[in-house]
Amino acid sequence: MLRILFEDQSIIVVEKPAGVESQAVHGFGVDMVSEIRKHIHKLSPEDRGLYVGVIHRLDKPVQGVMVYAKTKKAAAALSKQVQDGRMKKTYLAIVCGKPVDNVGNYVDYLLKDGKNNHTKIVEKGITGAKRSELEYKVLKTAVISGKEFSLVEIRLLTGRHHQIRVQMAGHGTPVAGDRKYGIVDERQERLCLCAAGLSFFHPDTGKKLSFSIQPSWEF
Question: Confidence band (pLDDT; 50, 70, 90) for 92?
Answer without folding.
Answer: very high
